[in-house]
Please model this.
Amino acid sequence: MFTGRQDVCPTRITAYAIAIKPDDPSPFYNKACAHALQSAVEPALENLERAIHLSPDGYREMAKTAPDFDPIRGEPQFRLLVHGGEARSI
Model:
């Protein structure tokens, strides 16, 4: 969950982490958090979906209560992804 300094670009840092370890779900989740905090729905969902795909139980459960997702929590796509149903597409 991204709760760090706002003057550091978390999406740039996580992009680097993803390039190094593309099968690690953590940077995708952190990038989703950063996008959600900016109310950027589509990039948040795309990255959260990837994190859930790589680690279905852990990141789905974390996203249910993580305050970083509050700005997009009401989105139907977010509810579908986090609370059940099929993932959109990766």
